[in-house]
Amino acid sequence: MARLIALLLLSLPAVVAYAKDARPAAADPVLEKRVMALSSELRCLVCQNQTIADSNADLAADLRKEIREKMQQGSTDSEILDFMVARYGDFVLYRPPLKITTLLLWFGPLLLLGGGALVLVRLVRRRRPAADTEMTDAQRSQAAKLLAGSEAEGR
User: Fold this and answer.
1) Are 31 and 68 in contact (CB under 8 A)?
2) Beta-bridge partner residues of 93
3) d(CA 85, CA 69)
4) Euclidean distance between CA atoms 94 and 61, whole angstroms
5) Residue 30 main-chain phi, psi, to 5 deg
6) Which of 39, 65, 88, 114 could form a disulfide with 92 if both were Cys (CB 3.0 to 4.6 A apart)?
7) How far apart are the C-alpha atoms of 51 and 93, rounded to whole Å?
8) CB 65 within 8 A of CB 80
9) Helix, strand, coil: what percent of the chain each, to 5?
10) Count of other CB atoms within 10 angstroms of residue 38
């Protein structure tokens, strides 16, 4: 019996989270579809690798609610996007426009990849064995003397 109570207590946070997500957000399914379509164009500022439509973060839920309210007030999608960009910057757009201020967002990963490849090539070139060089006559005679001396000591 104690195990059953412990199991129920441990599963309570999951039930509460599911109930929170399962609530209907809008009575109008057309409006809700429009909210989710626009939400899929905006980046979650907490998760940053998800849209606010996909995110379960509290901020994403608040942004979806704000979008829903603006749509109910009659705002167009472009007006809502302009509002979000004015408030959070181009980074809030899941696909930011290509302009001077977003060049790093667009080409930063490519620059990092190129820099990593350059570092890898330089490391590989440093580790190559040096080319064999020919010994001069003086070096051969010195090596022969050293070998003769070590053989004499080893006897």
Assistant:
1) yes
2) 42
3) 17
4) 16
5) -70, -45
6) 88
7) 9
8) no
9) 70, 5, 30
10) 22
Q: Indicate the residue type of 46.
A: V
Give this prediction's pTM.
Answer: 0.53
DSSP assignment of 57-121 equals SHHHHHHHHHHHHHHHTT--HHHHHHHHHHHH-GGGBSS---SGGGHHHHHHHHHHHHHHHHHHH
Rounded to whole angstroms, the Cα distance separating 1 from 4 reads 5
pLDDT digits (tens, 9 = 90+) for 83-113: 999 998 888 888 888 888 778 878 888 999 9
Spell 52-74 as b/e; 16+ CB within 10 A means b: bbebeeeebeebbeebbebbeee
